[in-house]
Amino acid sequence: MTFTAHINVMPLKELLDPQGKAVMSGLKNLGIGQVNDVRIGKHITLQIDAASKEEAQQLAENACQKLLANQVMEFYEVNIQ
Known about the structure:
Pathway: Purine metabolism; IMP biosynthesis via de novo pathway; 5-amino-1-(5-phospho-D-ribosyl)imidazole from N(2)-formyl-N(1)-(5-phospho-D-ribosyl)glycinamide: step 1/2
Organism: Chitinophaga agrisoli
Number of domains: 1
EC number: 6.3.5.3
Protein name: Phosphoribosylformylglycinamidine synthase subunit PurS
């Protein structure tokens, strides 16, 4: 069975997000001052062949831990469909 893993990788809240700060500044320059914070991350989609949803979850988690997310600076969320 094929499952789709939707993975969101974001910088840890404790760390500075220079990309987010640049976008925030740009929004303010455009007159969009109602935005209080911007965090820039990644959205990754994996098509996974697995016997079960649990196995697909484990494979996606393994991919995140070994390659897709730097756990020192980022956190990730996996959603299997």
